Here is the input.
Amino acid sequence: MSDYILRIKGISKSFSGVKALDNIHFDLIKGEVHALMGENGAGKSTFMKILIGLVAPDSGEVLLEGENLIGNNVNETLKKGISMIHQEILIIPELTVAQNIFLGREREVSGKKGLLSGWLNDSEINQRAGALLDRMGVDIAPKTKMKHLSVAQMQMVEIAKAVSNDAKVIIMDEPTSAISDKEVGTLFQIIRDLKAQGVSIIYISHKMDEIFQISDTISVLRDGKYIGTKSAADLDQNALIAMMVGREIDQMFPEATQPAGGEVLSVQNLGRAGKFSNISFEVKSGEILGLAGLMGAGRTEIARAIFGLDQWDEGEISIKQSPFCARTPREAIDRGIGYVSEDRKGLGFIPRMSVKSNITLSSMKNHRKGGFINTHSEQSVTEKMIADLKIKTAGADQHVTYLSGGNQQKVVIGKVLLASPEIIILDEPTRGVDVGAKFEIYKLIRSLADRGMAIIMISSELPEILGLSDRILVLSKGKQTALLSRAEATQELIMRYAVA
Amino acid sequence: MNKLSKLGQYGIFFAFALICLVLALSTPKFFTVSNLLIIGNQVSINALLAFGVTFVIITGGIDLSLGSMVAVTGVAAATFAHPDTYPLVVPLLVGLGAGSAMGAFNGLVVTKSKVPPFIVTLGTMTIGRGLALILSKGRPVSNLSDSFNFIGGGNIGGIPFPIIILLIAFAVCSVILNKTILGRYMYAVGGNEPAARASGIRVSRVKMWVYTICGLLSALGGILLTSRITTGQPNAGAGFELDAIAAAIIGGTSTSGGTGTMTGTLIGALLIGVISNSLDLLNVTSYYQQVVMGVIIIGAVVLDGVGKKD
Here is the structure.
């Protein structure tokens, strides 16, 4: 039993009468990677907040090497050896890498006493940071300003910061949500090195393939309850999903019921300097075209160009044989194009507006009496969409910011649908969406195609691309490298063209 | 947590009611019809400007040129308001037109140049002041017609005319914000501008409207002031923008955009008016009044912050 570094016993927590966590148990062995799985709302984030001392539980114990940590605040917990790498990286962009790593600990590092204790010792900070990064095998200069780093590099710096705190337990919350596949490889190597040094990792992610690649043990929470812990070797993807959603999802990807119709959108030799060039494809009515490729391959840029968010330099776009060039999203929407952005928070919705106001935002012209809003038709349309898309919300007037990721995404899709599009571009439609809602979104996408819409789906998740697309366009570094039919496409083939 | 946020949301109403209650009990003069009409009359100009700037702040902008627009429009209207020259409608249209044009200019520069509204309107604040001095050749424009002077000084059935204008403006602004598509788009633009654009909203057009309406309301304030003091003063309105912004903020409009109500702003303006009125009644000198006002502005935002915490 002595190899448990962290034991969590009977943690419960309620928020204003609602049980967020109910008698949770969790054991972490020294030097293991332990994945914590669960749908959004399962209680993972509350659990993590308790672990790092941000939230006090109603009952239960958090034992780090036998010492109960309940009652410690975030800083004390950090000093005891529990660090968290947050999903949204918390750094000061104008400070250097080294300054960020030792932020808040300048006094310790400078080692000066009395009046001099307020003086910085940047050379010592730089030297220590450099040694640390070297030891981790990360090639980042300590004097680089944070703002010049990529997201993946910033993450490495956060990990270095945790290591410099002598972390015994590092919690990683969706660490790969914003980094490329190659960088994921580097991250995993660092995780393996940390393991070898006896550091334990709690790993949270929605990406199944990663979970099985990196973790030793998997624990599942559902609806605030502890469901179970299993060795990763004893589980497969379907069994894990069944644990998470409490039922078997027999068929993740629905089949097409209608054959594809005529060509709706055609793109010929489209190019934008520095972003992409010579892109040609067409999409038929009732068809789902998958756009595969690594991050930075130019997929989102192509979508933005078609939708009028960016301009392009060469080539042609036509809709039903007539040439088309959107200078603004308004023009694209008026011509029947809908865009569901990968950046849901940034481009998708207005957080402090209601479900109703968000969902009708692109189609207000259907609810106008002069310049006034026809609240009656607006309300009924919204209620119908909430029912059709099974949006879980307290009502049409609920602010979107309080919905889960999957339901926020449905609001954005609802907004696009209400503008009656013929072409829908979905950019990473299931990013940050839990498994149950993912399945619903897949069904929705297929049913839209079956209703005769032409669909372009950009995704970094290969199972999604393979499961849903009728044809797959693969991009690499701004060029198209393959156009595959569903029958011939495999994960390996797509990856080969994606790195070509 | 929910209760606290509700309290924050309505805190300003409670605070206002409480202050009125305390004043009614401590100074018998406060709760008389004549005193209340005095307050309404005094508040009217600030409230008009505050309505205008509330639109702007909701879209995530700011307008510092209100005070200068008051001066320009006041001087411009006064120039055409001498007795036996033009019919009353001419100075009114000139004033309102000048305000709308200046507002539209603000909107144009803000949308075309990508310069932050704070800087743009800081510039037009100075430009406006200069224009007012040029138009009036640096001298007050006096000798105005009786019909013009009625706007700020007259009353209908005992109710001062400025209060009637104030109530009509409040109703119209509330309707614009709550019942029209333009109002909906203002919240959207302030709440998340890139998302609003990607939803097909013509963001520049919304901003043009907002700054133009703000200019128009400033002009209304300028005409009221000129008529009340029966003179077009090129130096009038200095610092008015700060009172107007304070009213909006006290009323719960967030400077980060996306939230705010006309009712809140009206209460904010009334609160400022009531406090300076009552401090007058209580013989508190104007020096202390300023300190009290500052404390109230900060207090209102603190209360607002309490309301927004999850």
Remarks:
- Chain B has one domain: 45-272.
- The longest strand of chain B covers residues 155-156.
- The beta strands of chain B are 155-156, 159-160.
